[in-house]
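Notebook p. 47: complex prediction with uracil.
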Amino acid sequence: MALDVAALSACTRCRLCETRQRVVIGTGPHDAKLLLVGEAPGRDEDEGGAPFIGRSGQLLFRLIDEEVGLSRAECYVTNTVKCRPPGNRVPARDELDACRPWLEQQLGDLAPRVTLALGLTAAREVLGATLPMGRIHGRARHLGDATGLATYHPAAALRDPALLDVMRADLGVVRALLGSP
Ligand code: URA
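Predicted complex, structure tokens below:
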């Protein structure tokens, strides 16, 4: 089923609707080769209405430009939940479950070559990952007709710059996957 943008924009399926300013749906071309899935909108995204427009996003898209050679405008970008959790806490299980049908509708509209989960919440929701990020990052796995992999969330690399090299290496895997026939 195609994404019902009007219904999602008015969604009240979980408590996050009570504190959000904007529903942050996703941005990018529907024929994007690379799909990026983060955790949840933060303050900047809640105000601006688009995913990854704050500091994390600036870092993310600099790394993607340098390591993959794609611009933000060439990627489809979304999150596991579409509304900001208060204080930027991790989305609760019932919030993730309430938002899941929206994510599934959205994924149904896209046909990426590679899906990159950013952080453990996205890795669990999109890839079904069960192990810690240290064990799973950069490892390609089948995801329907696409290839899925995970890397650290850019916010983690802002806190711990040692992760930058790890993210760069994982993005090198993305580049190789996109470049292969
Ligand atoms: N962090 C996320 O996971 N997603 C955003 O859109 C912004 C910050």
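Notes: The chain has one domain: 5-178. Residues 163-179 form the longest helix (17 residues).
Next step: compare against the earlier run before touching the bench.
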